[in-house]
From TrEMBL:
Organism: Kwoniella bestiolae CBS 10118
Protein name: Transcription factor domain-containing protein
Superkingdom assignment: Eukaryota
Length: 675
């Protein structure tokens, strides 16, 4: 037939038996069922799935759908033909309808897809292949992604370190999506993967890779590759992320996944040093994240917004509004946190210049703060129970640390505003805020008594404990100074001294346990910043209360030892700033110790004059990890009080005497700033 000669029938060939005929008939019936099912799901106007409940019982995985869109005149005919070939393709892979009407893979059960079809990395409603340009971009992105073993190392590294502190994605969801990616990364189906999800994957991989580049653990680094290999891989990740931004068309189709990717890359984990901090790209990414948050309406989901009006997004499961609300809250308030920190710093420094980056302000956020839910209670494969009320504060969840970070930033901004407007700083206000800070700190410390914390978790807890105490110290600073002449303010003196000693003790504890630099990229400079504030306050107390002088000298000696024993961080980028901070801090404490043992000032004006002179003093102090002294010129470029924002104006202004001529008094408010 048609020029083809049928193969001759072998004499040894045995006619098909009844069993084989029945099997063939059953196979044909399966094919017919597939064709009828798929054609029924297709609207007569083209390749559009009907929105029936049955469609959403399982997520439609796109297989071999490479037919191009046809003209409107022959759309129904082409669509039916396309669906026929899709059915054949499904059948060849072993998929058949189950008794319940859902699809089942007879050769391998699809454990990576939940019964609700979520989570999924595929663009569910797009059965038309992307443009050739986007298709090429997808394969370019995939070519930059390493092997599965390396992906596993980098993802686990992120989730065990950075992802524990700044929680921007849910682990069980991401792992389910990652399993899907491993199944299709080498298949033609890759072109149907959501490019925004690929951007999220690359963001996770790149943050971990950057930490490994600076890591000193050779065993861990060699699991991924040597340092030149890691740097080359990082360049590939950077290019792939830019390509993913293009392929995702975020200006046409904004997505939560792209927001998550940008927030991971610009995380304030490392003292606000994001992956691209050396360029303007980091600021642009932060601006894009805020714009995406607003466009997706994540910042306006208050209790008055009904569930039916919540934003729909591939990152949010359908018919689980609880998940949508909580994750919208977590992402929104993480962006608000950065804005509040920036505003508090500017308030402390009395800056009024135009910011280089946009911010999310409290007036723009109506979404309630995140509540203390575990991730698995928001979504899991077995959603047999659904928790509607959050856990008590002493229960550790994935979002516990962020909740405390948000509170610390909130009070930082409130206290800074009160300090800059002294008329609002009454004793009643101080006591009220003090009570709230102590409650937050008590809830934080209860996590240690309720859980067996890991080393990294214990370091996080101690850092936030210091941050709460730093807020207390700043809150009482003004009344603390008055307490030596007016016993009405004895409460503030007691509260401030207690906070100062708690800060130093916390720093000493983590130093003795040698966990200060075990966490990659953790902002350990916060311990030293807090410590400087605490040491200055103890110095003032010793000057004004001679009976306490001997005891405080011993306390400051402990502080001196901590600064002398300090070890530099792994990151070469952070080391110069760290050297200056710790080196000059050691100089500061050493000078105060000598003054207390010789001729300390005994009144507030004399103390201010002494601190001002100490700021202007040039000294050759060696950096903590080097035997060589810092050149005098380099030391004068960043003086300690300028570094800790004790004075208005730059360090050079102070050296030129501008600060002295304008305002010879110390800016005590800025002295006690710091997260």
């Amino acid at each position: 037939m048609d020029g083809l000669t049928p193969a001759p029938t072998s004499q040894a060939q045995i006619p098909a038996g009844g069993t084989e005929v029945d099997a063939l008939r059953s196979r044909m019936e399966q094919l017919e069922n597939h064709i009828v099912r798929l054609v029924d799901l297709v609207d007569t106007s083209g390749l559009v799935l009907k929105t029936s409940p049955a469609v959403h019982t399982t997520y439609p995985t796109p297989f071999s759908n490479h037919a191009s869109a046809s003209s409107s005149s022959n759309t129904p005919k082409t669509s039916t033909l396309d669906m026929t070939f899709l059915a054949l393709d499904d059948l060849s892979r072993g998929y058949s309808p189950s008794a319940s009407g859902t699809h089942r893979n007879e050769s391998a059960l699809r454990s990576d897809i939940s019964h609700q079809g979520w989570p999924s990395i595929f663009l569910s409603n797009n059965l038309v292949p992307p443009s050739p340009r986007t298709t090429q971009a997808m394969f370019d992105i995939a070519s930059a992604i390493p092997q599965q073993e390396i992906i596993t190392i980098l993802v686990d590294y992120h989730l065990s370190n950075f992802g524990m502190f700044w929680h921007f994605m849910q682990r069980n969801v991401f792992e389910a999506e990652l399993a899907q990616f491993h199944q299709v990364r080498l298949a033609p189906n890759l072109i149907f993967v959501d490019p925004a999800w690929l951007a999220l994957l690359i963001a996770v991989l790149r943050v971990s890779l950057q930490a490994l580049i600076e890591d000193t653990d050779p065993a861990l680094v060699l699991l991924v590759g040597d340092k030149p290999t890691l740097r080359k891989m990082d360049t590939s990740f950077a290019d792939a992320f830019e390509t993913a931004i293009f392929a995702a068309r975020i200006f046409h189709k904004p997505q939560v996944r792209m927001l998550q990717a940008l927030m991971i890359l610009t995380s304030p984990q490392q003292l606000c040093r994001c992956v691209e901090a050396s360029s303007d790209r980091g600021a642009l990414w932060h601006d894009m994240a805020i714009s995406l948050c607003k466009h997706l309406r994540l910042n306006t989901l208050d209790h008055n917004v009904p569930d039916d009006d919540l934003p729909t997004d591939p990152a949010f499961p359908p018919q689980l509004p609880h998940f949508t609300r909580e994750w919208a809250s977590r992402l929104t308030h993480s962006l608000l946190f950065v804005g509040q920190i920036a505003e508090a710093i500017e308030t402390d420094r009395r800056e009024s210049g135009v910011s280089r980056s946009i911010r999310l302000t409290a007036s723009e956020v109506s979404t309630p703060p995140p509540r203390n839910f575990r991730d698995e209670e928001l979504w899991s494969r077995d959603m047999s129970t659904s928790r509607t009320e959050p856990h008590p504060s002493f229960v550790l969840t994935e979002v516990s640390w962020q909740i405390h970070a948000f509170q610390v930033a909130h009070y930082w901004k409130i206290i800074s505003d009160h300090i800059r407007d002294p008329s609002t700083m009454t004793m009643e206000v101080v006591r009220s805020i003090d009570t709230q800070l102590r409650q937050g700190d008590y809830e934080l410390l209860s996590l240690r008594s309720s859980h067996q914390l890991s080393t990294f978790q214990d370091l996080i807890l101690e850092s936030f404990h210091g941050s709460y105490q730093q807020r207390v110290l700043r809150l009482h600073r003004n009344f603390f100074m008055r307490s030596y002449s007016d016993p009405t303010y004895d409460f503030s003196q007691s509260a401030a001294l207690s906070a100062a000693r708690a800060i130093i003790k916390g720093h000493k504890d983590v130093s003795e346990r040698q966990i200060m630099f075990m966490a990659p990229g953790f902002p350990t400079l916060a311990f030293y910043s807090h410590h400087i504030s605490a040491a200055v306050l103890l110095f003032i107390h010793a000057c004004l209360k001679p009976s306490a002088r001997q005891g405080i000298e011993r306390e400051l000696q402990v502080s001196m030892e901590l600064f002398q024993q300090a070890q530099p961080p792994h990151s070469e980028d952070e080391r110069p700033f760290w050297d200056t901070s710790v080196g000059r801090g050691r100089l500061f404490i050493e000078a105060m110790l000598k003054t207390l043992s010789s001729n300390p000032p005994t009144d507030i004006p004399s103390i201010e004059s002494y601190m001002l002179n100490l700021n202007l003093r040039g000294a050759n102090a060696p950096v903590p990890h080097s035997d060589a002294p810092i050149p005098s010129d380099d030391l004068q470029q960043v003086s300690l009080p300028a570094l800790f924002n004790m004075f208005d104006g730059s360090a050079q202004d102070a050296q030129n005497g501008d600060v002295v001529s304008q305002d010879p008094a110390l800016d005590w408010d800025s002295l006690f700033m710091g997260f």
